[in-house]
Amino acid sequence: MRRLASASELYPASDLYGGRGFQEAVLAADILGGDLLVASAGLGLVEARSKIPAYACTILTNAADSIVARTRGAFAPTEWWGTLASVSPHHQGLAELTRRSTGPICAALSDSYLDMLSDDLVALPQSALGRLRIFTRASVDKIAPGLRPFVMPYDDRLDGPDSPVRGTRGDFAGRALRHFAEEIATKGDQRSAAEHARAVAGALQGWEMPPRFNRHRLDDAAILDLIRSRWDAERGSSTRLLRHLRDDRGVACEQGRFAALARQVRAERT
Length: 270
Known about the structure:
Strand content: 5-15%
Structural class: mainly alpha
Order of helices and strands: HEHHEEEHHEHHEHHEHHEH
Distance between the termini: 30 Å
Low-confidence stretches: none
Helix content: 40-55%
Number of strands: 8
Largest sheet: 2 strands, antiparallel
Strand order of the largest sheet: 1-4
Number of domains: 2
Number of helices: 12
């Protein structure tokens, strides 16, 4: 709280997030004509047009900037989010934001971040909760029961040969949201969550699942060498570099581990 309150250098939030998942959300917000917000593990819920300090913080346990490694005892994502929301000068209250809106509330979140925001989402007034549409790769059985009716049924077919928005697991939620904005939602859409879910299921009907690969594991040094060798060819794009490693080289590398290694290479080159 002290560091956030004393930060003097502020930047437009939209300039600080460059991953594909965020860019897909930008496109979706533009298509739907909605306001774009970011669920930040370091700042709370922030509007993309607001100015915020540069920071590095996540609740992913295998990332270099994980807050989990800096806390004592058991870590509860919802408790972290609740405390962060109460002290961050940049946080915007979700309940208040929904009272000022009338359209769908589209939440594109990874499983960890959906878990972190679950208490806030479940606590929404019934009128707002009915407008909620969730886009995630999280298993339904790991989602709070009160949120399950609002999950849109996107699955691994989003990465199959018939999908127009193939990508990595890390940007799955953003790609699902974009597909929903482009192919499912309509102007003045008043359909229920169940009706939207049926429309999504119908759109995915007939799509094939992606092929499964038996990928081999490499140590960090070998993966760093591969990233360096393809950095210029892929123009430093984390998404393309990870796709190259997994699809072209058949290398198994988790999203968080790859992100940390890619940051190391980016630092070397700057």
